[in-house]
Amino acid sequence: MVQNQIELLRSGNVLAKVVETLQLTKDPEFLRSLRSPPEAQKRDPVATDTDAAAFRAALVALNSKLSIRQVGTSHLVTVSFQASTPEKAARIVNSVIRIYLQERGRASDAASSKAPTLREIYQSLGPSAQVISEAEPPVKSDGPPAALILVAAALFGLGTTAAVALLLDALDDTIHDAHQMEYVLGLECLGVVPRFANVDNGSEDAAARRLLAVEGPVLRRAAATVQDASTGEPRTIGVTSVLPGEGATTLAIGLAMASAASGKRVLLIDAVLDNPAISRWVASLSCAPPRPGANPEPAVIGDVVKVQAGLHVLSLAEGYGEASRLMPRGLLDDILNAAEASYDMVIVDMPSLASGPQVRAAAQSLDGFLLVVKWGATKSELVRQAFRSAGQAEPKFIGTMLNMADEATMKRYGYKRSEELKVVIAS
């Protein structure tokens, strides 16, 4: 019986009279489902249709926000309503109850007018309905506390952010650690070099000296690997990268400085004819810049510049100009033959693999190559494609180095620097 009364409370007849009594068709809160505001509806020539639409919208909104439920297993029923203001909610609830009771009274009167016996039966069988307490404006809003909503929203935002971050990380095809580098090419990664703050991109000297101070063990390991991979005298190694701007020149300078510091006689050759960064570095030093060579004869070794004890630099761009991209055939062999008696190691700063065939052309002259890859910038597939395009030089690559790594982000990928190097960096 209680459920029957609940359905009567929600009946269309009761709710329709509530809409009419309270004039909810003029309340914007009950007309949000309409496509146009009431003012536009009033100007509509088909007034009947617009009034009917407003009435249906108000009726639907009233029914959706009205809550009627039985209290446990008792015969008590609570009626509540969600509105923009507490006063409006209380007014609507009281109107629903009042009209419901009026409708019950009319039904009883209609039955008694036809037959008094039916009224007696109706009163004996039908439940009585009375208001225990009228609705009053609530002292607080319905629903969960605002603090709980804020916490839930914060947790949802945090979870969404974490999910997006994990998705972006999974879709990131760039190389972030030594193990990934070794997996991509199958070559040993000789070290991960961090990005140095407060060092300009064009300051190869400052970056190389900072590299030597901080990453001395890494450079010495690379130098030892180069010597072990070479059988002839002098040891010859080309330093290249996948793309320009990945720091191959800086690592070539640092490798040359580290080898010279270990007592080796080192010749560093700038073979990047269209962008001779090493030549600009040498020219910026206090020593005189290298002079152009007259021809590609072995005597070109006489144009070297001494940078420090055991380290000489030879610029090929000074003799052939920055407009030239390809090294003349046989020039590198002539230089290496001339350097045989004077140097223990020759390091050649080569153009990137993507710049042209210079690395492939030098494969017959050099003992091996070292590939430099920029951390978190170069995609794995691009590294594979560039490596496969190296031709005869491909089997001569002895290792790789990751350059310009972000130390804070590196920790996420499991790369941890030794405590000794942390002290050096801090100093």
TrEMBL record:
Key words, A-Z: ATP-binding, Nucleotide-binding
GO terms for MF: protein tyrosine kinase activity
GO cellular component labels: plasma membrane
Gene3D superfamilies tied to this protein: P-loop containing nucleotide triphosphate hydrolases
Keyword Zinc found: no
Record keyword Zinc present: no
The organism's place on the tree of life at top rank: Bacteria
Organism lineage: Bacteria, Pseudomonadati, Pseudomonadota, Alphaproteobacteria, Hyphomicrobiales
Protein name listed in UniProt: AAA domain-containing protein
